[in-house]
Amino acid sequence: MKEFTSTKGYGVTRLPFTKEAKQAVSYLENEMKKIGLKTRVDESGAIIGRLEGKKEKTIIIGSHYDSVSYGGSFDGIAGIVFSISIYITEINIMKLIYKLKIAN
């Protein structure tokens, strides 16, 4: 994700609705699809990955892929990695009871 920035050198700048943000959306959506999530991008540019569970209730875990100007390389992406790791744990180890949505 660090390569999707408008700044050179130190820090990451990925402001909402910019070319860099659109590149990040495309990358994240492809990665989510690769692991089996059903994805969509909403009107605000949030990527939503969905997994059906046995019950109607939904657990939503979220983070963000945009950044402030010259933000840290892990700003937002750490939360995205955490969310996806929970999904992988649910699929491979536990039986999913509730629906799971990952919103970034």
How would you sum up this structure, described in words?
By secondary structure, this protein is an alpha+beta fold. Helix content is 31%, strand content 18%. The two termini are 13 Å apart. The model has no long low-confidence stretch (mean pLDDT 83).
Poorly predicted residue ranges: none
Q: Rg, please?
A: 14 Å
User: How far is the first residue's CA from the last residue's CA?
Assistant: 13 Å
Backbone structural class:
alpha+beta
Global mean pLDDT: 83
Q: Beta-sheet strand percentage? A: 15-25%
Per the CATH scheme, the topology name is: Aminopeptidase
CATH architecture: 3-Layer(aba) Sandwich
Helix content: 25-40%
Count of separate DSSP helical elements: 2
The CATH fourth-level homologous superfamily: Zn peptidases
Number of spatially distinct domains: 1
Q: Count the strands?
A: 4
Transmembrane segments: 77-98
EC number: 3.5.3.-
Keywords: Hydrolase, Membrane, Transmembrane, Transmembrane helix
GO molecular function: hydrolase activity, acting on carbon-nitrogen (but not peptide) bonds, in linear amidines
